[in-house]
Automatic annotation (TrEMBL):
Pfam families: MMPL. It is found in: Cell membrane. This is RND superfamily putative drug exporter. Coiled coil: none annotated. Its main location: membrane. It comes from Paractinoplanes brasiliensis. The lineage of its organism: Bacteria, Bacillati, Actinomycetota, Actinomycetes, Micromonosporales.
Length: 738
């Protein structure tokens, strides 16, 4: 028989020593979680996040040693209708000034600033303490402003500024994420109960997923001391961890139940599940890790952090499926099918073999007319992918934040009355200290040169505000544009500054270097960065995945087919995103405001996530087909057997993913909506059209050629899949051990 595969040996030991395996897993998760929290989190710095010319500007400013700017909030006074009553506004401003000076946490209240058009009065408030925590301390200011509003009901008196907007958004988005997290768990459990028809069987995958997420959270905190963490890392760990944790457990538990249904004992059923589904879990987990590792090539601290978090949670989920999962299944035995939900249990038992009439009907065209089916399905997916050629990339701006909060409504009134408080370009200039007077004069001339140009906002009273570092070597000027950060006009104003105004103003200043940053520059530079790095990341991921699949299945053709199918899936997802979010038909239907673009970081992140998650299904399905071929089943029948035998598991796993991702699509921010819809649609396409139509038609058409490989890749000492003998009337054997 030879030495058994490591997945089988690990599962056998866990099944024979269940309490030890379970105890070791609990200790492992606890040590990871507690150890990570004890070590603390290291977050990315401006140097880590520097991308393009905008990144150089931020690094220049960060290294100059500027004192931290205090947090500034404002009281905005406007008319409810018609023209602002100046006298009434001045009285309200005086009341606000008096009241706010008594509020704890207020360092200074400035003089009221009238808008150039007389439509508003602005009272600036400088807050004491750490500016990074100002949003947590702004509530007393908001309460004081509310009291002033009650005293002056004829006016609109409202709190607006960075801290108050941050507080409002934290409250709104925090509720969003809390709702998503609360919903995702019962939705996942409900789907698994529907799949298994038993409560314990449904709870096992969720238990593995949650414990994997907890361990990965701790490990990622430790890893942040090597690769600084980003704000989105924890959310991605939760998203990916729940997806793969449930998937891997689902594959394993379904196969174990299937073997028990054939009369095998608990330990034997676990062993066979380990050799078949366990092997598929290792391969698919490796594929996900390879895909996520491609993010390191982007040279971006955010993507590197997401890669670390994703790799860790996938690795932990794979480890758990090979160790604690067999132990739990062996210990539970037939109790895993208790307590049963009567109707759902009968449906689950009826479909446990995977040979439902529905899936055979779906497969019939692919098996009967493979050429026509393949041609039609591929052309349909390519047609869906075509809109991706017109993809625009932008960062979401303040204009894309939900307007359901009073703070954002006040922000719109603030930027209308005071355009310089809206979109700003940031010009950082470095020069020897002796050149500081010349630099400041040049920047003043630069600010004056923008006046009268519709692309730039009028200067506020007092002229341009130029900040100078303590050592006089770095100067910073803010130049405002009255347009939103992702508008064509804002982009034109950036190009005007970079190509014309800034070089002309600083020409002749000795030893000067400069960079233009700000929100508009972030948009432009990051989009360019993504388009430049996406081909590199995609190329490396494709190459490594091809090599892994070729070696795993001992077939170059299977590897090439895998790559092509996943590219079709990703391309269709890209096209669908563009149709939904760059079109005009979906905003009212799905409840969002179109930004006429895709969020800049999404294409690269979506590629690696979809490529990795798609491999889960592909590896599982092709493994079942290969099992049948190695037993001597002809290709057409092997395809039918493999796909119908795995259809229930794949569709169940996909349903869980689609449901969870769809919940994320209900969040308020446009980036989460795009991520949720993109992932949900892609997984749905992949688990249906790709796996049930394109894959069987392609493999049926290729026949024995599916398993071709160079001589050095063929298994030693046994037949290759292409040369197996015809099917024999003998009991089913366990799957391949390659």
């Amino acid at each position: 028989m030879g030495r058994r595969p490591v997945t089988v040996r690990m599962a056998r030991w866990s099944a024979e020593h269940p309490w030890r395996a379970i105890a070791l897993w609990v200790v492992f998760v606890a040590v990871c979680f507690v150890g990570g929290n004890s070590a603390g989190l290291k977050e990315a710095t401006p140097q880590d996040d520097a991308i393009g010319e905008a990144g150089r500007a931020y690094v220049m400013i960060d290294k100059a040693g500027f004192a931290d700017e205090p947090a500034v909030d404002n009281v905005l006074i406007t008319a409810r209708t018609g023209k602002l009553d100046t006298a009434a506004a001045q009285k309200a401003a005086a009341d606000a000034t008096t009241k706010l000076r008594t509020v704890t946490g207020v360092a200074e209240v400035g003089k009221p600033i009238p808008a150039n058009d007389g439509s508003a009065l602005l009272v600036p408030i400088t807050m004491a303490g750490d500016p990074d925590t100002a949003a947590d301390r702004v509530e007393p200011l908001r309460s004081a402003t509310a009291e002033v509003q009650a005293t002056h009901p004829e006016l609109r008196v409202e709190q607006v500024g960075g801290p108050s907007i941050g507080k409002a958004l934290d409250d709104t988005l925090g509720e969003d994420f809390k709702r998503a997290e609360i919903l995702s768990l019962p939705v996942t459990l409900a789907i698994l109960i529907l799949v298994f028809g038993a409560l314990i069987a449904a709870g096992v995958p969720v238990l593995l997923a949650l414990s994997s997420v907890a361990a990965a959270m701790g490990l990622s905190t430790l890893a942040s001391h090597l690769v600084p963490s980003s704000d989105a890392t924890a959310s991605v760990i939760l998203l990916i961890g729940m997806a793969v944790g449930v998937d891997y457990s689902l594959f394993y538990v379904r196969r174990e139940r299937e073997e028990r249904a054939k009369g095998r004992g608990h330990v034997d059923a676990v062993e066979i599940a380990a050799e078949t589904s366990g092997h598929a879990v290792v391969v698919s987990g490796t594929a996900v890790i390879i895909a996520m590792a491609g993010l390191f090539l982007a040279g971006d601290s955010t993507f590197s952090s997401l890669a670390v978090g994703s790799i860790l949670v996938v690795a932990v989920a794979v480890l758990g499926s090979l160790t604690v999962l067999p132990a739990i299944l062996a210990k539970l035995g037939r109790w895993v099918d208790r307590p049963r939900v009567p109707l759902l249990w009968r449906l689950s038992a009826r479909n446990s073999g995977g040979g439902s009439r529905f899936w055979r009907a779906v497969l019939h065209p692919a098996l009967r007319w493979p050429v026509a089916t393949l041609l039609v399905s591929v052309l349909a997916l390519l047609a869906l992918a075509v809109p991706a050629l017109g993809m625009n990339l932008k960062f979401p701006g303040t204009e894309d934040l939900p307007r359901t909060t009073p703070a954002m409504q006040a922000y719109d009134r603030l930027t209308a009355a005071y355009p310089s408080n809206g979109t700003n370009h940031l010009i950082a200039v470095s020069a020897p200290a002796a050149s500081a007077p010349a630099v400041q004069a040049a920047l003043k001339n630069l600010a004056q040169s923008t006046q009268g140009d519709r692309l730039f906002a009028p200067l506020e009273q007092g002229g341009p505000d130029i900040e100078v570092s303590p050592d006089k070597t770095v100067s910073v000027l803010h130049v405002a544009t009255p347009f939103s950060s992702r508008s064509d006009e804002a982009s034109d104003s950036l190009h005007r500054l970079r190509s014309d105004l800034v070089p002309a103003a600083l020409n002749g200043v000795p030893g000067v270097t400069y960079a233009v940053g700000g929100g508009v520059a972030d948009n432009e530079d990051y989009a360019e960065h993504i388009w430049r790095t996406l081909p590199l990341v995609a190329g490396v991921v494709l190459l490594l995945t091809f090599l892994m699949m070729a070696w795993t299945f001992r077939s170059v053709v299977v590897a090439a087919t895998s790559i092509m199918l996943n590219l079709l899936s990703v391309g269709a997802a890209y096209g669908l995103l563009v149709l939904v979010f760059q079109g005009s038909w979906a905003p009212d239907l799905l409840g969002f405001t179109s930004m006429d673009a895709i969020v800049s970081w999404l294409p690269l992140f979506l590629f690696v996530v979809l490529f990795g998650l798609s491999m889960d299904y592909h590896v599982f399905v092709v493994s079942r087909i290969r099992e049948a071929v190695l037993r001597g089943v002809p290709t057409r029948e092997a395809v039918a057997e493999g796909i119908t035998g795995s259809a229930g598991t794949v569709s169940s796993a996909a349903l869980v993913m689609v449901a969870v991702f769809s919940i994320f699509a209900t969040l308020s921010t446009i980036d989460m909506k795009q991520l949720g819809i993109g992932l949900a649609a892609a997984i749905l396409l992949d688990a249906t059209i790709i796996r049930a139509v394109v894959l069987p038609s392609a493999m049926t058409l290729l026949g024995k050629a599916n398993w071709w490989a160079p001589r050095f890749m063929r298994p030693r000492g046994r037949h290759t899949a292409a040369a197996v003998t015809p099917p024999q009337p003998e009991p089913e054997l366990v799957g391949p051990r390659s």
